[in-house]
Amino acid sequence: MQIIHAHEPIPSNLPCLFLAGPTPRAQEVCSWRPKVVALLEARGLTDDFSLVLPEFRTATINETLEHEEHYRQVQWEWSALGQANVILFWVPRDLETLPGFTTNVEFGYWAAKAPEKVVLGFPVGAPKMEYLETLAKAHSIPVSSSLGETVENALNLLLELLGQAK
After folding, report:
1. pTM, whole model, 2 decimals?
2. For 17-35, how does the pLDDT look when each residue is reduced to its tens digit (9 = 90+)?
């Protein structure tokens, strides 16, 4: 598993799993993405694939990016999402710390454009998820309520797309 962070090149010769969902904008808010890395590492995967985390490798978090940096980030993410074989959306929505407004738009876009490469997960009780869940079900997108199950859904989809069903 090759971990790719924001603005790093994504190898075109490897299958790609993109971790979409809200990104912390303050130091005191923990990212959920390291938990996915740990879950994948615990599985002892031998498959060679890229795992794309749209967060910077350094721990620096800015409340808002400067206009040019924001534009570069958006362009990089759009390219990475397009290159991904599977897009895992995990939405641990907290309206104060991880509202996921951009995630709503991204999910709607990819649910309509390429539902075959999307999975959705969110914890029980996450607010304002009814619409995303309804949209997912309308497009036959797997939905789960635990991070572990969401990761499994994404891996199953990745293996299926690569012709390596479990």
Report:
1. 0.92
2. 999 999 988 888 899 999 9
Residue 72 lies in a domain: yes
Q: At what angle do helices 33-42 and 147-161 cross, to 10 degrees?
A: 60
Question: Domain residues for 34?
Answer: 2-161
pLDDT the model gives residue 45: 72
How is residue 117 annotated by DSSP?
G
Q: CA–CA separation, 119 vs 152, rounded Å?
A: 10
Q: What total of structural domains would you count in the chain?
A: 1
User: What percentage of the chain reaches a pLDDT higher than 70?
Assistant: 92
d(CA 155, CA 88) in angstroms, rounded, equals: 9
Task: Tell me, yes or no, whether 54 lies in a domain.
Answer: yes
